[in-house]
Amino acid sequence: MTLLLSHLSRHFTDAAALDDVSLAIAPGEFLALLGSSGSGKTTLLRILAGLDYPQSGSVTRGGHDLLSMNARERKVGLVFQHYALFRHLTVTENIAFGLRVRPRHARPSRTEITDRVEKLLKRVQLEGYGGRYPAQLSGGQRQRVALARALAVEPDLLLLDEPFGALDAQVRIALRRWLRNLHEELGLTTVFVTHDQEEALELADRVAVMNRGRIEQVGSPEAIYQQPATPFVCEFIGKVNKFELQREQDRMICGALDFGADLWAKRYDRAVAYIRPEHLALATDTGWKARLRHIYLAGSVAHLELALDTSEQLIEVDVASEDLLRLGLQQGAELYVQARTATVFPLANDTGEAKSEDRRVLRPHQQPY
Amino acid sequence: MYRRRVLPGFGLSLGYTLAYLGLIVLLPLAALALKASGLGLSQLLQLLSSPRTLAALRLSFGGALIAAVFNVLVGLLVAWVMVRYRFPGRRLLDALIDLPFALPTAVAGIALTAIYAPNGWLGQWLVPLGIQIAYTPLGVLLAMAFVGFPFVVRTVQPVLEAMDRDVEEAAASLGATRLQTFTRVILPMLMPALLTGFALALARAVGEYGSVIFIAGNIPMRSEIAPLLIVEKIEQEYAGAAALGVVMLCFSFVLLIVIAQLQRWSGRWAERST
Amino acid sequence: MRTTAHVSRPVSWQRRALHVLLILAVVCFMSVFLLLPLAVVFVEGLRGGIAAFIDTIGQREALASMRLTLLVAAIAVPLNLIFGVAAAWAMTRFQFRGKALLGAFIDLPFSVSPVISGLLYVLLFGAQGWFGPWLEQHGVRIIFAVPSLVLVTIFITLPFVARELIPLMQAQGSEEEEAARVLGATGWQMFFRVTLPNIRWALMYGVLLCNARAMGEFGAVSVVSGHIRGLTTTMPLEIEMLYNGYNEYDHIGAFAVASLLALLALLTLAVKTLLEWRYSDQIAPHTPGGH
Questions:
Q1: C180 - beta bridge partners?
Q2: What gap in Å lies between CA C34 and CA C29, rounded to an integer?
Q3: Which residues have a Cβ under 8 Å from the Cβ of B18 and sit 6 or more positions away?
Q4: Could you say which DSSP state residue B259 is in?
Q5: CA separation (Å) from A149 to A143, A178, A334, C124?
Q6: CB distance A53–C8 less than 8 Å?
Q7: How many CB atoms are located within 10 Å of the residue A267 CB?
Q8: CA distance A61 to chain C (A)
Q9: Which of B3, B101, B157, B256 to mutate against chain C (most C CBs within 10 Å)?
Q10: Which residue of B has its CA nearest to A133?
């Protein structure tokens, strides 16, 4: 059953939290809502859970209107950011809660509940912890209890709000992999909210990048990273070098840097180009002349900070540490930089607004290093 | 062992505290303890077994129990409305909750009497309906409820305020109705605070004197409370007063221990700092 | 977003009606239960008109009772203030055996019936008490005289200041004081420049409650006072004497004196509320104390 969100808008007194958001979520999909705080991602999640309502728009699941149902009726499992475990109930009682509050005719028998809780405890690797209170568990354990509690009601849709936000870096990575495996086992449609792009890109089938109440781009992690659709996505995901381009006759240039021929038939006078550090390559004789300012060695990759000769603009170039050694580069060395791929957005002549629909991917220097 | 304390004033502050406490609290308590132990158990029981004394004890304890239960029910409602709803005048009412703490008991006593006496503000309407409050056990209950009123509200309020809305939302998304959320999630979480408030209100009502004696009418066997009996006995012979005093003091101590246990019990769920 | 995100879903009219009903119930209940007694005091006190009010308040016995109430509070409150600070310092800055027990004893007067507090002192200083005969021989009167009034008031109000300070100083920790010591401050310098400024609002809060109770105490002083009008009757006792008097004039007098104490109560509540709003972070989170 496809979950269809169309034209959702939600305004708070001071700002818009959601601004005409539309999204289709396929059955069994693992979708990440990625954005910084205030981007509307949590509001969207809460609307799906039935804890908040949009002022306009609709949410349907398999054709049924979800907004007309309240939180209890939706068959949605929700894992809260801070887990919201019932602190007066044991782990077992927490997990069984959703089953025990069912009306008598729909409530499983006592033994059935016990069985199901046992299975879930096993599934989240917390066998033997059933009698404990939430206060007696570690953060990672609490998170898994919250997950088991959400799964106990056999939801059609699992929602996770910053599922790893409150955990240590170590536990976070372990739990991430575990959650991915669990998703593959269960095949449950899952939507999670995160501000951590690494988490979103690593975990999700598809990522929706949100900004100021709008969805900037929805796509596979690879598409988001390799083909960012908007300047925001370029800047938000990963590291990027930004160049401001001017049109001179039929070429786009940035100072003395030539970005190649104008691709918009002189419709635009200015544009911005984004180039990822790993899409820049070093050369010995051709390309943009630059001076090496710093080397930041980070294991297998070396981040180089370079100052362009023509504009003094600082740029970052990533190379493999091996190459760095091979080239024997020192601070202050003079070298050339070549761009392999640049994502360019033209700017409207009147407003200066980036025209995402006229995005072009340029290859200013065709031959790589 | 050579061990210096970092901050000064240990000897001075602790010494002063102990000396002051010893003179003001412990010495008088010792006087009562000694007086009571001098009586012996059989004499103690004999002093307490007169019908009038038993009736007074029954009224003081029974009345306090009913008043405390009333305070739990009403206090929960008031705390709920104060925390969850916004309405004009809320802050003023909230400040007013503490009035029974701030108003001297004698003032409360004569004010309540002026309201509920047969010719009083409300009494003149209630008595013709057959509801007589002043000069009956009902009046005693009313005064006890009045002085104990703030306890439950003030213990429940902070817990309710600190309660995460997440938890209620979690219950709702797991399929609980509003009523189930209230009875299975909110109420159990409030239970320690409710019980603590109950115990505090009970302790206060059992020992209350000033606000009760004016409205009670103090009819022996009917509306006479134990503290009043103590006052009367002091004027005759100390032994009887001491016997009653010991019984009531023991009750207070038991309640103190119960309250401490309750606080521990509520700490069971609390985050453990590691 | 969480903070602002509460339900825009139209709340059903039944739910809204329930809210209004609950609010109305509470407002009505509190009006009758709390406000009415307060109103009664002032209305009854002013029943004879302003002139009569001033006249009753100006009676010799009434004035004497006010003087005595102020005197008792003026002795008891500062003593308990010093005790409170000392006890809180010892309890929060040092580890020692029996600390929990000490804490229990500090709180004890709250859980003792006022009448029993009075009884304790009668057993100690009364005619048949421990020190009674010896005191009588040497011509010292404690019971049925002002000293006993002061003593029981100290007993009753002993925990107020300490109880405000202990949780606050516990929460504040001793780092700042240690820093002052390391920087070379003497003990008293540290106390007056670091400790006292940190606890001043909580101290004021405690003193406020302590004073309200000291001036309003009835049961305990009633037991030890002997009810000698103009000599050993504090304002609450004067209220009782007037109230139990036989003519209506006395009745109005009782409410007139009572309205002064009610004003004190209102003032206390106002300052207390102000302190709670303004300095909530510098006043310890408190469980309600007995009165």
A1: none
A2: 8
A3: C102
A4: H
A5: 10, 17, 60, 63
A6: yes
A7: 13
A8: 19
A9: B101
A10: B269
CATH dotted code for C50-286 = 1.10.3720.10
The DSSP H or E segment spanning A271 is strand A270-275
Joined tokens for residue B129: 């309906």
The token pair that represents B198 in the structure block:
């109950």
- A183/B234 Cα distance (integer angstroms): 78
CATH of domain A239-366: 2.40.50.100
Q: Which of C89, C112, C268 sits opposite B249 (nearest CB)?
A: C112
Residue type, C69: T
User: What are the structure tokens assigned to B34, written together?
Assistant: 């000694």
Q: In what order do the strands lie in the sheet with A251-254?
A: A257-261, A251-254, A241-248, A270-275, A342-347, A360-362
Per-residue pLDDT of chain B (274 residues; tens, 9 = 90+): 345 577 888 999 999 999 999 999 999 999 998 888 888 888 888 888 899 999 999 999 999 999 999 999 999 999 999 999 999 999 999 999 999 999 999 999 999 999 999 999 999 999 999 999 999 999 999 999 999 999 999 999 999 998 888 999 999 999 999 899 999 999 999 998 999 999 999 999 999 999 999 999 899 999 999 999 999 998 888 888 999 999 999 988 888 888 878 777 776 665 443 3
Structure tokens at B116: 């509920």
- DSSP percent split of chain A into helix, strand, coil, nearest 5: 30, 35, 35
Contacts of B114 (CB under 8 A, 6+ apart): B120, B121, C40, C44, C255
Say how many CB pairs under 8 Å bridge A and C.
30
Kindly report the nearest CA distance between residue B160 and chain A, in angstroms. 14
C218 touches B at CB < 8 Å: yes
The reply to whether A97 touches chain B by the CB within 8 Å rule is yes
Neighbouring-strand partners of residue A360: A344
Instruction: Tell me whether C265 touches chain B (CB under 8 Å).
Output: yes
The shortest CB-CB distance from A53 to any of C1, C2, C7 is to C7
Cβ contacts of B116 within 8 Å, gap of 6 or more? B122, B123, B126, B133, B134, B139, B142, B215
Cβ-contact C170, C253 below 8 angstroms = no
The one-letter amino acid code at C252 reads: I
**Is B40-273 in CATH node 1.20.1440.230?**
no
* Closest-CA distance of chain A to residue B34, Å: 45
What residue spans define the domains of chain B?
40-273
Of B18, B31, B87, the CB nearest to C129: B31
The angle that helices C196-216 and B105-116 make with each other, rounded to 10 degrees, is 50
A195, A37 Cβ separation under 8 angstroms: yes
> Closest Cα partner for C158 from C146, C150, C170?
C150
CB half-sphere exposure, B230, CA atoms < 13 A: 34
Angle at A269 (CA atoms; ends A268, A270), nearest 5 degrees: 100
What is the complex's ipTM, to 2 decimals? 0.90
Burial tier of A79 (Cβ tally within 10 Å: 0-12, 13-18, 19+): buried
The alpha carbon dihedral of A174, A177, A180, A182 has a sign of: negative
- Answer whether CATH 3.40.50.300 is correct for domain A3-233: yes
